[in-house]
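Friendly challenge for the regulars: who can give me the structure tokens for this chain first? No prize, just bragging rights.
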Amino acid sequence: MEFGLGKVNSVLPENIEQHLKDGYKLIDVREEHEWNAGHHPEAIHIPMGNIPESMDNFKEETKYVIICRSGHRSGKVAAYLDSQGYECFNMIGGMKQFSVISDNFHDSTGKKGNII
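First reply, four minutes later:
Bragging rights claimed.
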């Protein structure tokens, strides 16, 4: 399985909270140490390398926003999931951009997090 950058829909970080209210699921594909340093409280952590064996976690009727640090890895994962029949969106600018507009993220202990 290869991740490729195909054409993928995207969303802006400032719209994430509304997408969550609308029932979208937020999937964070960063590595464990990045996740532990700071993540959105409603995000589900599935590192990029674990996506292939995690396909049972995805439901065709659910819409997903895929996030990473900057939007590059998440774009690849969103394109892959889209090619598998899932409705996915890449968050432009990733958690770095989200952290500019929001402080709604924390570390693995629940304290204010950092985006690394």
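The longest helix spans residues 72-83. The two ends are 27 Å apart (CA to CA). Your move, everyone else.
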